[in-house]
Write the structure tokens for this entry.
Amino acid sequence: MGKVEQSLLAKSKKSPLIFVLIDSEVSKIKESVNLAKSVERIGAAAILVGGSSAINQIEMAQVVKTIKKAVKIPIILFPGNVTGVVPHADAILFSSLMNSENPYYITQAQALGAPTVLKFGLEPLPTAYIIIGEGTTAWFVGAARGIPFDKPGIAAAYCLSAQFLGMRFVYLEAGSGAKQSVRPEMIRAVRRVFNGFLIVGGGIRDAKTARELAQAGADALVIGTLLEKEKDSLKKLAEIANSIKNARK
Ligand code: 1GP
């Protein structure tokens, strides 16, 4: 287990965490750096860089390198493809899209990308990436057979298989900008069978939802679109951060 994993586990024992997603296709360098500094001040535990439509490797590499100098929290790559592997980050969600119908996203992209992960010295966080629902970019690009939002048992079965396969992270993904987020019942069902680090993202925009998801057992919530689109988004992020602080008590 590497440094980033250890620190995330230690921090998440105290309270659920916020990960902020920066999509280098959407936010250019200057905005990304300002955003990274602001969310660090608010208390975000890590910054994810990537996304399924972020495929410009040169641009992403510049964003990562620049943010890395500006903040202390870990920068974790969130690749949608092999092009998402760039230097200077601390770690990478080394993910298999468990419910893809295309083996490329389950093992082949991983095989193509692994040597570069090693070369760049990125800490791999072994992650089962599971797409819930349909109609989002991640769902389409990843050729996923989305698990219906109201089928927590199916998600739990995938997560148990992830645990048996030795994956220490699960990411339940409703997709960026999703109309609804993953439901608390699904998180509770997953939590009953999966002992690892549980990341939940997609469509989380308000403190009430965030708190429910944290109470259900999420270790980290990923926030992306809110910070790109909404007015007063940093204020809203602060509300979300506050609402999950003691959600487990
Ligand atoms: C997407 O889970 C992340 O991969 C974040 O989703 O953009 O909807 O916050 P949003």
About this structure: The CA atoms of residues 185 and 227 lie 26 Å apart. The pocket of SN-glycerol-1-phosphate is lined by residues 21, 51, 138, 173, 176-178, 201-204, 222-226 (CB under 6 Å). Residues 29-42 form the longest helix (14 residues). The longest strand covers residues 123-131.
